[in-house]
Every structure is written in structure tokens, then in C-alpha cells.
From TrEMBL:
Keywords: Cell inner membrane, Cell membrane, Membrane, Signal, Transport
Primary localisation category: membrane
Superkingdom of origin: Bacteria
CDD domains recorded: PBP2_NrtA_CpmA_like
NCBIfam families membership: SsuA_fam
Gene3D superfamilies reported for this sequence: Periplasmic binding protein-like II
Compartment list: Cell inner membrane; Periplasm
Protein name (Swiss-Prot/TrEMBL): NitT/TauT family transport system substrate-binding protein
Similarity annotation: Belongs to the bacterial solute-binding protein SsuA/TauA family.
Protein source organism: Salimicrobium flavidum
InterPro entries hit by this protein: ABC_SsuA_sub-bd, NrtA/CpmA_ABC-bd_dom
Cleavable signal peptide: 1-21
Length: 340
């Protein structure tokens, strides 16, 4: 079984989102491309969660390998959080892959030479409360403790933007009324039960798992969360330098990603099985068919990227003081590979 690169440090098999390597990176592919004899090796990264099913399908079906030139070895790494993923892209540790839009935008406005070349999915963020939290409405969150995968991650911004814009409630990060802590989504159920947190901004499939096992309740479902149905929950990112140096490789990767996304929409039951098996393989956590089905209902798998939504989301990050300067995302998205 492939393991996360950070397991040796964390000593845990719990999956995290934001979210979102392997010392035994899996190589796959028989190489059905056009350049025979190539010995190139590339690495694709993604997170083992439902928003990243395109990565799982592409790996399981060897879609990247089939699009790339003959002889190309394709490895895969699974990341603990978006920051680690973006660092891997910037340093050339990976050639590209799927990550939340928050880390991609944050690194871009900080000067990272990266591009979003496709989306992966939309939706999948759910606001939940512990059964014994005494919370029945978002208004009750004043003075309460909430958890997100990481400070400033996609799910964190969605939650805090909703709370500020609709209820005028902010976190202690900006001298507000809610206490904010971070942690792995797979631990949220136990933290609810232990009374360590009152609420959580939860990515799928963990929201459906908590709900199915009765360990928490849905406070705000995906459509009502800020940017819940319009913001890409996952985007395909690569480095601008690699895109300029080897556009054919990026075209091959985007083609494979599009193929995987089409497969998900055309073969949902098979894609669900792949996701269920892959998450268990990577994380040692088995999700029931009920949980997978529920999570699937909250997600739309699409490669289309709406640049204006990304800019609006980035503006929210600035308004919440996650970003020091007002962001300009001009040049971040390159949709040319989707249009060929």
C-alpha cells in the first residue's frame, strides 16, 4: 500500500483535506503516446477526497500514461495540505495535479509562477455542528469554537465569508467572536464527541461520514455556503515555466484530466467504486456506499473555470485579512488547453 510521505512525521493514517507523497510512489502506465523510447518520469499530485476523484480515476485507469509519450513513467503523490502541494509544484517535485483553489490563489498572489489550467469539481463544503454544541443556527456560533483544515484554506474562507457577510460574526484571528482551530477532517467526529469543537467547515466525504454515523448535524448545506455551488472546489495546477517549456506535456495532462472527468459523469457508479477503493488504499479508512452516494450529491464534476468567481473568492480572502494586499488574479487561469 502506498503511504503518505508525511506519515513518518505524523504517525497517522488519517486523511486531511486542505485541503490536500509517497516514499513508494506508484508508477503506472503502458505508454500509448506518440514518442517511442522516452524515459521521462513525471509525478502527479492530488488529495484522497471526493473533490479529487478525477485524480483517482486517472490513476486507476492509467489515463495520464496513455496520453503521454511511450516510456513515460507516471508517479503519484498524495498531499497533507494545499501548501505542501503548491510548494511541490513550485520546486518541481511534481509536474502538476489537483488542489483547492485557495492555496493556488494565495501562492499566485505571493508571486508563485503557476497556472490553473482546468477545474476538477465544484461544491462539497458543508458546515456542521456537534450534537451537544447547543447550536441550531449559524447565529449561535458567536462565542463558539470552529475547526477548519487549515487557516485560509478554501473551506475556511467559504465559512468565514458566509459568517461575516450574512451574520456579522468573525473569528478571533481578526479579534472576532469565534475561536478558530485547525485539524484533519477525519478527526472532526471525535472532536465533536469529545466537546473540543462546536462546529466545523467540513469537506466531503467527511461531512457525509459524520452525518451517516450520527456524530454531528448539518448546519449549512453546500448550496448555502459562500461560493458553495460556483467556486471550483478543486483545480488542476501546473507551473508556468513547465507550461511554457513543454506545452505538449501540459496538453496531454489536461486531456487525461478531461477524460477522467468525462468518465466520472458518464460512469458514476464505477467512479464511486474507484473513489471508495482508492481512499481506503491511501488512508486506511473505508467509506460506505451510503457515504459516497451522499457526498456525490453535493459535488459537480467539471473542468470549466470561471475566472470571475475565483477573483470574487480572492477578494473575500482579502476582506477577511487572509491576504495582505488586494489580489489581482489576472493571468492565473489559462483555459487554452481546454479549448483545443
Amino acid at each position: 500500500m502506498k503511504k503518505f510521505v508525511y506519515l513518518a512525521v505524523l504517525g497517522s493514517l488519517l486523511m486531511v483535506l486542505s485541503a490536500c507523497g509517497s516514499s513508494e510512489s506508484g508508477a503506472s502506465g503502458n505508454g500509448e503516446g506518440s514518442s517511442e523510447g522516452s524515459s521521462d518520469e513525471i509525478t502527479i499530485g492530488y488529495f484522497p477526497n471526493i473533490n479529487h476523484v478525477a485524480g483517482m480515476v486517472a490513476e486507476e485507469q492509467e489515463m495520464y500514461s496513455k496520453q503521454l509519450p511511450d516510456g513515460t513513467t507516471v508517479n503519484y503523490q498524495y498531499f497533507p495540505d494545499g501548501s505542501a502541494f503548491m510548494t511541490a509544484v513550485e520546486t518541481g517535485e511534481i509536474e502538476g495535479g489537483i488542489v483547492g483553489p485557495g492555496p493556488a490563489m494565495n501562492h499566485y498572489v505571493s508571486g508563485a509562477k503557476i497556472n490553473i489550467v482546468a477545474a476538477g469539481s465544484k461544491g462539497g463544503t458543508v458546515i456542521m455542528a456537534g450534537n451537544d454544541s447547543g447550536i441550531s443556527s449559524p447565529k449561535d456560533l458567536k462565542g463558539k469554537t470552529f475547526i477548519s483544515p487549515r487557516v485560509g484554506c478554501t473551506h475556511d474562507v467559504q465559512f468565514e465569508a458566509m459568517m461575516k457577510d450574512e451574520f456579522g460574526i468573525t473569528s478571533d484571528r481578526v479579534q472576532g467572536e469565534m475561536k478558530h482551530v485547525t485539524g484533519k477532517p477525519a478527526t472532526y467526529a471525535s472532536m465533536f464527541k469529545a466537546g473540543k469543537v462546536d462546529a466545523a467547515t467540513v469537506p466531503e466525504p467527511w461531512a457525509s461520514k459524520i452525518e451517516a454515523e450520527g456524530n454531528g448535524k448539518v448546519l449549512v448545506d453546500t448550496p448555502e455556503v459562500a461560493y458553495g455551488e460556483t467556486l471550483p472546489a478543486a483545480v488542476f495546477v501546473t507551473s508556468k515555466d513547465l507550461k511554457e517549456e513543454n506545452p505538449e506535456m501540459i496538453q496531454n495532462l489536461v486531456d487525461a484530466h478531461q477524460q477522467a472527468t468525462d468518465f466520472i459523469n458518464e460512469n458514476p457508479e464505477e467512479a464511486k467504486t474507484i473513489a471508495q477503493d482508492k481512499i481506503k488504499e491511501i488512508t486506511d479508512q473505508e467509506l460506505s456506499a451510503e457515504v459516497i452516494d451522499s457526498a456525490w450529491e453535493r459535488i459537480d464534476f467539471s473542468t470549466d473555470v470561471d475566472e470571475s468567481v475565483l477573483q470574487d473568492f480572492a477578494n473575500s480572502s482579502y476582506d477577511l485579512e487572509f491576504l495582505k494586499e488586494k489580489p489581482d488574479l489576472t493571468g492565473l487561469v489559462d483555459k487554452s488547453f481546454l479549448e483545443k
